[in-house]
Write a structure and sequence with these properties.
Blueprint: E1 2-5, E2 19-22, H1 27-38, E3 42-44, E4 62-67, H2 73-92, H3 100-123
Parallel strand pairs: 1-2
Antiparallel strand pairs: 1-4, 3-4
Helix pairs in contact: 1-2
Length: about 120
């Protein structure tokens, strides 16, 4: 499995089943990198728009994928819709300039949601 993330909380995360690809970039770039991997036969295991935070409100996005033998039409549809949704929200309102405390809160939320999802994936 592979984890694409821009969340610095994952810099020290250890999991033998996950290869972490950390990028010092924005939310939208993580979506685009995910799309690029889907085109290379990766399947999305965690929803790109998980949680109840609007895509134009948070800074961090982490997505778990796994290599597949063929193009996943479901993953392609999922990432395309996520990109469209992100653009819709971004066009309505830019991401605020959050304080460091709020950035930390968003980082913790992303980290907790994804590590819980990884735990569930590993149990399958």
């Amino acid at each position: 499995m592979k984890l694409l993330t821009n969340n610095p909380k994952f810099l020290n995360y250890q999991n033998k089943k996950i290869k972490i690809k950390y990028y010092e970039t924005n939310y939208f770039e993580i979506l685009k990198k995910t799309r690029d991997l889907v085109h290379k036969n990766y399947e999305i295991l965690t929803h790109p728009l998980y949680g109840s935070i609007k895509p134009n409100e948070t800074l961090y996005r982490s997505i778990v994928l796994q290599k597949s033998d063929s193009l996943s039409i479901n993953s392609l549809s999922l990432i395309s819709e996520a990109i469209d949704t992100f653009m819709k929200f971004k066009n309505n309102k830019e991401t605020p300039l959050w304080s460091e405390k709020i950035k930390e809160d968003f980082s913790v939320i992303d980290f907790d949601l994804i590590t819980n999802a990884i735990g569930r994936i590993n149990d399958i």
